[in-house]
Design brief:
Elements: E1 3-7, H1 11-27, E2 31-35, H2 41-55, E3 61-64, H3 70-81, E4 85-90, H4 103-111, E5 116-120
Parallel strand pairs: 1-2, 1-4, 2-3, 4-5
Helix pairs in contact: 3-4
Length: about 120
């Protein structure tokens, strides 16, 4: 069993990573971080591993390369690893935007093979 999170260079992405690291540490589970697919894995891995190490040194982390469809990548990673949790970050939306959850987040919530924890940037 694992915890799965996507790596995005946004405030929401960083908050999701922080939360996923904390959950992995508390539960004693490995963490699978899926890159956005915008950069080659070789370029993303050191940054992700450094971020995780600064948040919690005792978490076992594996970085997987995404394809560019983060919703599909997170669902695939959660399914293949038997994940116990997917962590996603959400951003604030306009009043109209609040009526419609982002398509990627909605897809993850509907298709995920495990519980999904949605976090927002504090402040």
């Amino acid at each position: 069993m694992t915890i799965v999170v996507g790596h995005l260079a946004t405030p929401e992405g960083l908050q999701a990573l922080r939360t996923a690291v904390a959950e992995a540490g508390e539960r004693g589970l490995p963490l699978v971080v899926v890159t956005s697919g915008k950069l080659p894995l070789e370029e993303c891995r050191p940054e992700v591993e450094e971020l995780v190490a600064t948040l919690a040194a005792d978490v076992d982390v594996r970085v997987e390369e995404g394809t560019g469809d983060l919703a599909e990548d997170l669902i695939r990673a959660a399914t293949s690893t038997g994940a116990g949790l997917i962590v996603i970050g959400l951003r604030r939306r306009s009043p109209v935007g609040k009526l419609i959850l982002g398509a990627g987040a909605q897809r993850i919530l509907v298709e995920a093979p495990c519980p999904v924890l949605a976090v927002k940037v504090s402040g």
